[in-house]
Amino acid sequence: MKLFLYSVMCRLFGHKYTLKRNITPYLREIKCKRCGKEFGMNDETKSVLPLDNELKRLHSDLLNGT
Q1: pTM of the predicted model, to two decimals?
Q2: Alpha carbon distance 30, 6 (integer Å)
Q3: 16, 34 in Cβ contact below 8 A?
């Protein structure tokens, strides 16, 4: 029930982002304090995308230098 209320709050008022980890100077992973959803953020393209398995794998590859 609590998660549902937070989800509704995010839909009405927007997410409360916190930094999860920096990938590069322009790429980072962020997370909403309220609903717990994770996102990937790119400063160069000014985009925020839901953090799915493909994006997580890409970020891991960038961190590992492969």
Answers
A1: 0.81
A2: 17
A3: yes
